[in-house]
Amino acid sequence: MNKSPTPITVAYGDGIGPEIMQATLDILKAAGANIFIEEIEIGEQVYLRGQTNGIEVSAWESLRRNKVFLKAPITTPQGGGYKSLNVSMRKALGLFANIRPCVAYSHYVTTKHPDMDLVIIRENEEDLYAGIEHRQTEEVFQCLKLITRPGCERIVRYAFEYAKQNNRKRITCFVKDNIMKLTDGLFHQVFKEIAAEYPDIQHDSMIVDIGAARVADTPEAFDMIVMPNLYGDIISDVAAQIAGSLGMAGSSNIGDRCAMFEAIHGSAPDIAGKNIANPSGLLHGAIQMLVHIGQGDIAEKIHNAWLTCLEQGLHTADIYKEGESKIKLGTKEFAAEVIRNLGEQPIKLPVANYNDAKPLNLPVIGHRPAKTKELVGIDVFLQWQQGKPMELGETLSRIGTNMLSLQLITNRGVKVWPQGFPETYCVDHWRCRFMGVERAVDFAELLALQTRLHDAGFDVVKTENLYNFDGEPGYAAVHG
Ligand code: NAI
């Protein structure tokens, strides 16, 4: 019995979006993809109608009903208070994993790294992208970096299950936990915990700065990399670019309930409407979508036809090389060649094989039993610019008590009291740490402290409670 078609939501997007989406859908149809398409409109036209988030309520309904979204790039109007629709969609639909295969197709596509075959798994929802930012003083602006244990567990688990499914041999974790010991430290810790459950997959970790340098220099040395959101955002673009062309890479955004597939490039308004855009990035997104909905056989057929076109020198303008390519093709003509090659396999490039692809086996990540949480102090942030750290330390010491005493003051994280250096450059933002003396602290004491600070004329701009969890400090120590 024929299975009923899988409903998918499709957005044609802006700029080159409609051209590359039409080419992609023509190929999917010719290959026999068993899908039912529901179209939505998102992006520039929707913004211009006054819907400032670029998406209508009815489009959300389609996405939540169908749960699978093939999306062409959209133009984000510049200036004004527009939010990134891409970021909003990832968060609203819970798309926690961003998967970007970055593969070199040497020598058909020019690259300095012909052996590169790297998959980057980027955490997609947390980190500095929570969008929680504040101006606290005249001089200081803050962005909150949020890393959660369930968030780390989900993305790291996803990476290992993906490796298992796709016969990948090694996963490298990129973090900066020499500096961000609590947040990146948690990501690294979870990576080590979960890696121990997969003895057949090798694992290692690198500090992100040297890791990024190695990706740029010797990407072929990596198999898979998993990392938090910001590092992944930057490094996955670098990796796609050095693989040969940003215009060729696709990406998937996966959540527990929904998934979105796209090209990684933008709407390329400079070449829109000219029938010269390369549809390959979106086509790769669509191939990942077919694997996701259990149509690996169709994904494989399309991928191999596409590889065959590359080998036959049938190239769009962005990768066309005089003397090496055979024909320079427009968007529509390239799609027609992929369709003509359906059923063929590449001779030199590795043959794609998705026949064994099954949905990943992802456990639901629960919440851990709560630890004993003990309030032990407070960091009070003041806006203050009247004088020297020594004066501030002496005044605040008198405002503290025998039971809740001032321990230290930092400025931009550098200890300036007691025993600071006169050389340290200070701004108008002071973090003042008061600790309970050899005991837990009552919350009312913290409120009383803030009232005394206020009464003494201090401008308290923020506080951060300090807790121990099962006796372990839940705050970064201050050294120096
Ligand atoms: P872009 O990726 O659209 O274009 C950069 C350059 O690459 C341009 O010269 C363009 O012609 C070329 N290019 C891109 N895709 C191509 C393709 N398939 N074939 C041949 N050449 C291609 O980046 P840009 O110009 O910075 O952004 C344009 C718009 O796209 C902006 O409004 C931006 O916000 C949006 N954008 C949307 C994304 C999405 O919807 N996922 C992602 C990135 C940008």
Brief descriptors of the model:
alpha/beta, Isopropylmalate Dehydrogenase, 10-stranded mixed beta sheet, 3 domains, Alpha-Beta Plaits, 13 helices, 480 residues, binds 1,4-dihydronicotinamide adenine dinucleotide, 20 strands, 23% strand, 6-stranded antiparallel beta sheet
| The CATH architecture of the largest domain | 3-Layer(aba) Sandwich
CATH class (first level) name of the largest domain: Alpha Beta
- As a whole number of angstroms, the C-alpha radius of gyration is 27 Å
Strand neighbour order, sheet with most strands: 2-1-3-12-11-4-5-10-8-9
SSE class: alpha/beta
CATH superfamily of the largest domain: Isopropylmalate Dehydrogenase
Q: What are the bound molecules?
A: 1,4-dihydronicotinamide adenine dinucleotide
Shape: elongated
Number of structural domains: 3
Structure description:
With 480 residues, the chain is of the alpha/beta class. The protein contains 13 helices and 20 strands. The strands form four sheets. Strands 2-1-3-12-11-4-5-10-8-9 form a ten-stranded mixed sheet, sandwiched between helices. The chain has a six-stranded antiparallel sheet with strand order 17-16-18-15-19-20, with helices on one face. Strands 6-7 form a two-stranded antiparallel sheet. Helix 1 links the parallel strand 1 (6-11) and strand 2 (35-40). The chain starts with 5 loop residues before the first strand and ends in a 7-residue tail after the last strand. 42% of the residues are buried. The mean pLDDT is 94. The protein binds 1,4-dihydronicotinamide adenine dinucleotide. The site of 1,4-dihydronicotinamide adenine dinucleotide (NAI) has 19 residues, from loops.
